[in-house]
Amino acid sequence: MKILGIESSCDDTSVAIVNSKKQILSNERISQDDIHQFYKGVVPELAARNHTYHIDKMTKKALKSSGLSLNNIDIIASTAGPGLIGGLLVGLSFAKTLAQVKKIPFVAVNHLEGHALTVRLVNDIKFPYLVLLISGGHSNFYFLKNTNKYDFIGGTLDDAVGEAFDKVGKVLGLKFPGGPEVEKKALKGDENAFIFPKPLLRTVHTDLNLSFSGLKSHVIKLVNSNKNNLISKSFIEDVSASFQKTVSDILVNKLKRAVKYCNEKFEAYDSVVVTGGVASNSYLRKKFIENIISSNKKPFIPPANLCTDNGAMIAWAGYERFKLGYSNSLNFKAMPRWPLDKRNAL
Ligand code: KG4
Ligand code: ZN
């Protein structure tokens, strides 16, 4: 089977074709970084307008690079939420129109489900498994029992970790999105130059919740009160490295606890997955892998280009759902808020 997947929930317009043999036949993506650069953040209306502009071009490109036509496509899958409503409406309406015109099944995919299942497109990994999903909008732990059986077990109470990376990048005067830029600066910095707060790690906090807004504000305050140092390369590098190390310490600590929690609470499992845009960070990937192995689990992190938003993850999740007998009517609504554990009902 060949599945065409459409992703437009934030600022990437991506269309991909994957097949049921786990081959990615095309994965076209255009980012809008240049447009949002000026504002150092995603402007929802501009994002929606640009998705409208790019979506048909990306679809044609995905078909051309895979050597296929719409007549060869068996399923259309599209992100239906969570995300920015304007972008979701563009992708969803486009996908439904294709499905209607070509009379092929339509599958509505939860964006988080796309991130959480991508690993099965590139690895031979079986359910159940533990997922840490870290992106620009989410920082959550899930236990995946099966396709469509997702338990939320903890997550951020405020900012997502990607958002914190982006705000730190912004205050340091780096390009948008800040995440990859902070990682680059951190390479030359001293990660022990600054001590930043690590909230919710004391043993009284027995849950798997996370918090990044205090850490973000602390870094912003430090930088603002050292404005003169911003001209110094080493200050920017040291702040980047210290921030990245703090994020790593927090996530690794909580991931260890999540492994333990799932060992006690759920059926036996042997794999731990980290995914989402922030999981493309090489420093964090290394720390996660070391830590997961030391917890006697098998680490799985998709390649960087499948961690950030992409159409292939949506096509694959659409196929996984279809295989289980799920498809959706063309009445399916876009849902800006759509927690992954609520997916089970739809
Ligand atoms: O999954 P994603 O592409 O979109 C959302 O669903 O949000 O994640 C985007 C987020 C942004 O905040 C971006 O700065 C962050 O992932 N990110 C990174 C890196 N690459 C992307 N954060 C840290 N280091 C990176 N290398
Ligand atoms: Zn995402």
**What's the level 1 CATH class of the largest domain?**
Alpha Beta
Shape: globular
End-to-end distance: 23 Å
Spatially, the strands of the biggest sheet line up as 3-2-1-4-5
**For the report, how would you describe the main beta sheet?**
5 strands, mixed
Strand content: 15-25%
Task: Please bin the fraction of helical residues.
Answer: 40-55%
Number of domains: 2
How many H/I helices?
11
CATH architecture of the largest domain: 2-Layer Sandwich
Describe this structure in words.
The protein has 346 residues and is an alpha/beta fold. It is built from eleven helices and ten strands. The protein has helices spanning 33-37, 44-66, 85-102, 111-122, 161-171, 178-186, 213-224, 233-265, 282-294, 304-307, 311-323, and strands at residues 2-7, 12-19, 24-31, 75-81, 106-110, 129-134, 139-146, 149-155, 271-275, 298-300. A five-stranded mixed beta sheet has the order 3-2-1-4-5, sandwiched between helices. Strands 8-7-6-9-10 form a five-stranded mixed beta sheet, with helices on both faces. Helix 3 links the parallel strand 4 (75-81) and strand 5 (106-110). The mean pLDDT is 96. Residues 111, 115, 135, 276-277, 309 line the site of zinc ion.
